[in-house]
């Protein structure tokens, strides 16, 4: 076990939880959903900007590179987080964060089914845990409390 890796994973999990709770709080206070997402991604981009300092970004200027950036920015990220904020507008943060765990499961299964990747036993165990957790969240009695819906 790599302590730095574990610390990084814990930091990522805490950051995601903080992001989710903060976004939900802003939505409950009446902030516009797209504005909340754009603001958070803008702050994230500024924080990460030093990581690309000195990197060769010439590929972005090619047609293929520009299309890749547009696809990843507008569809893969933009659209998915607009949908994410709609979920946050009507469900508790814990439910939305748990449901978002289906994303890596989907990506892994697509890798196996479409790209012919091999599913290892640890990955299969992880998928099983996530799917069982999502099923447990769907059980009766796990409904959000009345009055928690906000406008997207």
TrEMBL record:
InterPro entries: EamA_dom, EmrE-like. The keyword Amino-acid biosynthesis does not apply. Keywords: Membrane, Transmembrane, Transmembrane helix. Residues 4-137 form the EamA domain. Gene3D superfamilies: 1.10.3730.20. It comes from Ornithinimicrobium tianjinense. The keyword Transport does not apply. Belongs to the EamA transporter family. Pfam families: EamA. GO terms for cellular component: membrane. This is EamA domain-containing protein. The chain crosses the membrane at residues 33-53, 65-84, 118-139.
């Amino acid at each position: 076990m790599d302590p730095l890796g574990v610390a990084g994973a814990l930091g990522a999990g805490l950051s995601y939880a903080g992001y989710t709770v903060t976004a939900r709080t802003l939505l409950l206070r009446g902030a516009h959903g797209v504005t909340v997402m754009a603001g958070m991604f803008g702050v994230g981009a500024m924080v990460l900007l030093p990581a690309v300092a000195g990197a060769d970004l010439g590929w972005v200027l090619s047609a293929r590179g520009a299309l890749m950036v547009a696809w990843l920015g507008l569809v893969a990220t933009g659209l998915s987080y607009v949908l994410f904020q709609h979920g946050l507008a009507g469900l508790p943060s814990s439910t939305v964060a748990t449901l978002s765990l289906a994303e890596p499961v989907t990506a892994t299964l697509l890798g196996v089914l479409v790209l012919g990747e091999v599913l290892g036993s640890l990955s299969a165990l992880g998928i099983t845990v996530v799917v069982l957790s999502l099923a447990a969240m769907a059980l009766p009695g796990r409904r959000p409390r009345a009055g928690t819906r906000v406008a997207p």
